[in-house]
Amino acid sequence: MNQAKPLRSEIEASQGGEIVLGKLDDYIGFHLRLAQNASFRAFQRKTGQSDLRPGWFALLSLIKDNPGITPMTLSRASGRDKSTLTPLLRDMIRDGFVEKQPIARDRRSYALFATAAGAARLTDLSRHAAEHDRRLDQIVGDRKAELLNLLRRIAVEIE
Amino acid sequence: MNQAKPLRSEIEASQGGEIVLGKLDDYIGFHLRLAQNASFRAFQRKTGQSDLRPGWFALLSLIKDNPGITPMTLSRASGRDKSTLTPLLRDMIRDGFVEKQPIARDRRSYALFATAAGAARLTDLSRHAAEHDRRLDQIVGDRKAELLNLLRRIAVEIE
DNA sequence: TCAAACTAGTTTGATATCAAACAATCTTTC
DNA sequence: GAAAGATTGTTTGATATCAAACTAGTTTGA
Asked: Does A91 touch chain B (CB under 8 A)?
């Protein structure tokens, strides 16, 4: 349908601010990406000045709250591929925010711990992250619980 | 708080499936990323076999529904930086799915149109995309309208 | 009118990300 | 207890993405 040559009026409309989303407007995946992208960029702008890499906050937080966690478990908890974590962990260890210890019963892996410097840095980052998320809280208002539930279900149930 | 050395029980717990999300569990941004990432990966797996690049679907759909749209407008509509679009558009034009035409009144820019091949490809992609989004629809059930509203508001209002 | 400010698109550089292939180690199965 | 299979972490290769710097063209305003 609508295979005909576009009308002049349609073309004119496309130049202005009147964008037709079409079927896209009904796609959860599309809006999910738009929202996440906008949120991620805003967070990055806020923390970028504070010499923080955006991926660090979630990882450091998880390591602090789960002392001895392994890279593989961390990968699942943070929703990122294990190979993505390799260079991030290397840098966090190099910079003294995280330490690794061998695991006796599995020599392939290692246990991760936040150092005192890591905990301090996390506190610092938490200020920015909390500020950012407070903005998100404002936007969603009293429907936050429901939103979180839906997002959790999407993350878990999609395969 | 909880600055003390981690208990052995905590360490053990971190190895298993019991992950403590801590403050993260209350962060919209965190769950947004998790959900988007999972959804994106699932979509990619579904369409990857069909020789489709995931970024193409939204762009092609927008070009088809907005004949004559410029890269800049497309950038805003798709939520991606203009420089991200450059190589994507180049490839879509090279492969004959999209055509560009000069704009008389602004020689810096150009107008984009979907070709017949592009429309055909879009139809093909739509099948996969619709299938994927039907899965998302199942997960969110009757709260879809509300979810879309929240996601739209986040994308627009965060700055 | 024409210089200054702005805007559109491209190029370049830096991250982030996944997936596949690999090596080392564990676990299972016979 | 040894071979086969599974799991963990790393390396490598391919995209996607943004931001900043750049070029070319347009708009503004003095």
From this structure: no
